[in-house]
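#structure-requests
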Amino acid sequence: MSYKCFDVSIENNIAHIVMSRPEKRNAMVKEFWTELPEIIRDIDNNSKARVIVISSTGPVFSAGIDVGMFSSDIGAIRDKNDPAYGVNFYHNSVLPLQDSFTAIEQCRIPVLAAVQGGCYGGGVDLITACDMRYGTEDSFITIYEINVGMVADVGTFPRILNHMPEGVVRELAYTGRKMHAGECKDRGLYNEVYASQKEMMSAVMEMAADIASKPPLSVYGCKRIISYSRDHSTADSLDNIAVWNMSMLIPSEMMEAMVSKGEKRPGNYKDLPKKTG
């Protein structure tokens, strides 16, 4: 299937989603917001891969949201002073955009982001929803919305606070300054930084292959429990882990993990079941 904003390939249980509009700095136009969750959910629901990698093309990872999407809405509130504008904008614009990146977080399989060049506004929303982030030495992030009179509303704040101190997040939000790759790694947002995009993609694909070689149900369990633990108390999380293992452990998969390791061969694991309904 072809998309306006992405190229998608799947090989060796790794799905590679590439933003493919470098001539437009990979700005997030209207189609972006419907295509991305559709791609993510198709891969997840139909168990087409065990890991997803999101990368980009050109000198800029993403220029963020294309504000041209909202021109008619902005015109409506300016010209008509519609009292229902706020409610309509919330339900018809903000919620669908938020859902696009929530699809990444809710996906059963890990999603890795590979960032080159600038990552503006909505791009930060995107990468903070991913499981892991990697960048090139020339990459940077900026919570750019303050520079256009907006508050980042698609997911940056509730997610980036899981990676960086509140004071640092406030500074980025209030100033819109660029945080370059070295600081992103030092602050905990990036897992690693690489000299070039080629080197980064090689390393990210190697990491993806390593994850794809593990028992898929166990990887899903780790993702689910880590997210749950982030948002709940230790006591609740311990209980949730116990229930998960009691309900989801598969003895044959555990045996295969141990036997394949002893025999020094790749494990032969079952894919996650397809979602139905």
